[in-house]
């Protein structure tokens, strides 16, 4: 919460306002759990101006009372609520007066390698207060919550934001590793020539490529917004915190290069799969054409001899049927021999 904001009193507890968890941090100490927003607001009011720590409140926006409570009592900047109304956009950290706000896109807790399993976490960062809000359970913020629950100390509100960004980078790296393992399996199958699985593999590659593109577009922090924020941060942000955010940005850069390389690899494999499918289709079409050509003598001769006209050769000959059968068999055999030589030439 900014220096000039004093939280108002509040009458109902966390069961009514969507509080998921809350912690009070002091420098060098583990976070102390906060049972309700009433307790958090009282704590902030009691320690206003002392700046000896900060409070983190993690809110569930699916709760009907969460957003009204945030508007009435959290003292957040208008930019935070404008970002809420925008919906899911690229991850960014921006300054608004004496506060920071962040839009952090993260994968859902039940992530199943689907491009749609990406949701947004909104974070308002002030000197004495951090408010994070989400509509769906998310992986990175849950990692942060578990780390705090295990007793990890955070010395400032920006340190909590930095921890969240690093958790997001770690989660993104985990997704990249899992995707690479899937692609390795598909590549082995393609190189082994398992043609019966090409269609399934092509569908899987398209899905993984959509996932990689969406992750790169949504989870990557906007470099311009981050650089502007770090060049002119609020006065209470320490030089050490700025360096930590710089390093977090560099970690994201490494992961994004891995995702870009992954996209190139998937594209090459899609081209390989498409080439193999085209080869299979060409062979099937050639085989169908050869079958049609082999049946040509039978269809031609049977058509000619099926006409009810006079002068049909061998009509009165006792062995006429067998003679014509031998002629048809000879023509079919000759065409089959030519077809086999052509097939051998293609191989």
Automatic annotation (TrEMBL):
Tagged with keyword Ribosomal protein: no
Compartments where found: Cell membrane
InterPro entries for the chain: CorA_cytoplasmic_dom (IPR045861), CorA_TM1_TM2 (IPR045863), MgTranspt_CorA/ZnTranspt_ZntB (IPR002523)
Keywords of this entry: Cell inner membrane, Cell membrane, Coiled coil, Ion transport, Membrane, Transmembrane, Transmembrane helix, Transport, Zinc
Domain of life of the organism encoding this protein: Bacteria
Topology in membrane: Multi-pass membrane protein
UniProt keyword annotation of Transmembrane present: yes
Principal localisation: membrane
Ranges in a coiled coil: 169-218
Transmembrane segment boundaries: 285-307, 319-340
SUPFAM superfamilies linked to this entry: CorA soluble domain-like (SSF143865), Magnesium transport protein CorA, transmembrane region (SSF144083)
Matching CDD domains: ZntB_u1
Family that this chain belongs to: Belongs to the CorA metal ion transporter (MIT) (TC 1.A.35) family.
Name of this chain's protein: Transporter
Species this chain originates from: Pseudaquabacterium terrae
């Amino acid at each position: 919460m900014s220096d000039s904001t004093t939280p108002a009193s509040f009458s109902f507890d966390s069961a009514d306002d969507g509080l998921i968890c809350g912690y009070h941090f002091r420098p060098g100490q583990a976070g102390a759990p906060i049972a309700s927003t009433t307790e958090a607001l009282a704590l902030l009011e009691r320690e206003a101006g002392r700046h000896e720590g900060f409070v983190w409140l993690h809110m569930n926006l699916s709760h009907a009372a969460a957003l009204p409570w945030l508007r009435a009592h959290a003292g957040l900047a208008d930019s935070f609520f404008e970002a809420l109304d925008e919906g899911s956009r690229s991850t960014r950290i921006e300054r608004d007066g004496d506060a920071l706000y962040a839009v952090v896109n993260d994968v859902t807790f039940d992530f199943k390698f689907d491009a749609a399993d990406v949701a947004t976490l909104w974070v308002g960062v002030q000197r004495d207060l951090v408010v994070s809000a989400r509509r769906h359970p998310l992986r990175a913020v849950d990692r942060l919550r578990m780390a705090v629950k295990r007793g990890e100390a955070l010395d400032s509100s920006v340190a909590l934001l930095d921890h969240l960004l690093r958790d997001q980078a770690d989660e993104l790296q985990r997704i990249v590793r899992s995707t690479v393992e899937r692609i390795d399996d598909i590549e082995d199958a393609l190189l082994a020539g398992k043609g019966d699985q090409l269609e399934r593999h092509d569908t899987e590659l398209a899905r993984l490529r959509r996932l990689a593109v969406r992750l790169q577009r949504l989870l990557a922090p906007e470099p311009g917004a981050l650089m502007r924020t770090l060049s002119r941060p609020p006065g209470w942000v320490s030089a050490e915190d700025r360096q930590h955010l710089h390093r977090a940005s560099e970690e994201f850069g490494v992961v994004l290069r891995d995702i870009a390389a992954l996209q190139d690899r998937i594209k090459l494999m899609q081209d390989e799969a498409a080439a193999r499918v085209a080869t299979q289709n060409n062979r099937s079409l050639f085989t169908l054409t050869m079958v049609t050509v082999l049946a040509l003598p039978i269809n031609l001769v049977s058509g000619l001899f099926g006409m009810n006209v006079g002068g049909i050769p061998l009509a009165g000959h006792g062995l006429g049927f067998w003679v014509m059968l031998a002629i048809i068999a000879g023509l079919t055999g000759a065409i089959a021999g030519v077809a086999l030589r052509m097939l051998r030439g293609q191989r």
